[in-house]
Every structure is written in C-alpha cells, then in structure tokens.
Amino acid sequence: MNLNLSGHHLEITPAIREHVVSKLDKINRHFDNVIDVTVVLSVEKLKQKAEANVHLSGKTIFAECDDTNLYTAIDNLIEKLDRQIIKYKEKNAARRHDETGIPPVLE
After folding, report:
1. Which strand ranges, in their side-by-side order, compose the sheet holding 34-44?
2. Phi first, then psi: what are they for 59, rounded to 5°?
3. Mean of the per-residue pLDDT values of the chain
4. What is the pTM of this model?
5. How many of the other CB atoms lie within 10 Å of CB of 60?
6. Among 63, 82, 4, which Cα is nearest to 36's?
7. pLDDT tens digit sequence for 89-107
8. Ramachandran region of residue 61, left (φ > 0), alpha (ψ -120 to 50) or beta?
9. What is the Cα–Cα distance from 82 to 31, expressed in whole angstroms?
C-alpha cells in the first residue's frame, strides 16, 4: 500500500504521520488489496479537515471529515473509510460466489 500524506496550510509532523499510519493499519487488516491511499489534512480557521482517496482494484473510495481537533477528524475519517471498504468487500464476495455475477436480492 502506497501512502501519500500531505497538508494544506499545515505542516505534517512525525506524530501526525504516525497517527495516520497506525489508523490505516485497520483498513489494511480488513482488505488486503489496497493499492494507494492519498490523505490530505487541512486547516480552515477553526475547522480541521481530513480527506482521503483509497484506490482499490476496480474502485476508488473517497471520504472526508472535519472537526475542531485534527486527531478526532482523522479517527472519524478512518471509521468512514472502514465502513465503506467493508461494504465493498461484502459486495465483491457476494458476486464472486454467485454464478450469474448479479448480487442476490435481500428480502
């Protein structure tokens, strides 16, 4: 997994980088086929914003989150990405086990 971490009006300190890397391990545990992750951290007056693009094989997932605390924004961002990746993984598994390739209809 390639990680591109950048800051907009913000200097990326080693502590922030370590926090993002440790949180991204959670995504890597749930889905191994992550190709590239781009995380942009920015500051706008009182709002700290974190956004990420995750490139998977055949899909790109985007999420953004903002808060007054940057670390909280990063944590919320990872939770959003984790939910989206788990949903994508479950859809892929359902398609793979069906001969037609059409996902089953839930009743």
Report:
1. 2-8, 34-44, 47-56, 59-67
2. -155, 150
3. 88
4. 0.83
5. 11
6. 4
7. 888 877 766 666 566 665 5
8. beta
9. 9
